[in-house]
Amino acid sequence: MYQSHEIFGSKHIEVAVLVLINHQNRVLLTQRRCDVHLPDYWEFPGGKIESEETPKQALLREIQEELAYQPSQAQAWQKIDYQYPDFSVRLHIFKEHAEQPQVHSNEQQAMQWCAITELSNQQLPPANQGIVDALMQL
Questions:
Q1: Domain of 49?
Q2: Does 87 have pLDDT greater than 80?
Q3: Phi-psi region for residue 38, left (φ > 0), alpha (ψ -120 to 50) or beta?
Q4: Whose CA is closest to 45, among 98, 93, 13?
Q5: Which of 25, 40, 58, 138 is deepest in the core (most CB within 10 A)?
Q6: What is the DSSP string of 13-25?
Q7: Residue, of 9 and 129, whose pLDDT is higher
Q8: Beta-bridge mates of residue 1
Q9: pLDDT digits 0-9 by tens, 10-48
Q10: CA 132 – CA 127 distance, rounded (Å)
């Protein structure tokens, strides 16, 4: 169903992303590992959609794996297509408001709760700019 594949000689990746907003109107960011594309950048948590997974199934799996958190009210919010020099990505973005979500860094990545107004000060992947822009409109 969804998976990484080649489009006109360029790799394409489908990703499920969670914008988790707490009671202080802060969003959760996690830091990318040093062995991946854009190492040490901050990002909204999530991950690649595997073949035979829907975006929602991938979201639930990835968030459980990364954060030991089970999104219960995540709603599909938007999709963003972005072309990097060597691959393209489609972000399937879900949004959830939770009073005090209990998250835990299962993969030992750094995490932070960031005020929406401070997102522009974070080093985020370029594909995330559309998320930041939409959050600023809330």
A1: 5-136
A2: yes
A3: left
A4: 93
A5: 58
A6: EEEEEEEEE-TTS
A7: 129
A8: none
A9: 799 999 999 999 999 999 999 998 888 899 999 999 999
A10: 10
Contacts of 47 (CB under 8 A, 6+ apart): 15, 16, 58, 61, 62, 65, 66
- State the CATH number of the domain containing residue 120: 3.90.79.10
Q: Of all residues in the chain, what percent carry a pLDDT higher than 90? A: 86
Q: Is the pLDDT of residue 2 over 90?
A: no
Reported in sequence order, the residue ranges of 1-138 that DSSP labels E, i.e. its strands, are 5-7, 10-21, 26-31, 42-43, 46-48, 75-83, 87-97, 111-115
Contact 74, 49 (CB under 8 A): no
91 closest CA partner among 6, 16, 1, 2? 16
d(CA 6, CA 128): 22
In whole angstroms, give the CA distance from residue 100 to residue 108: 20
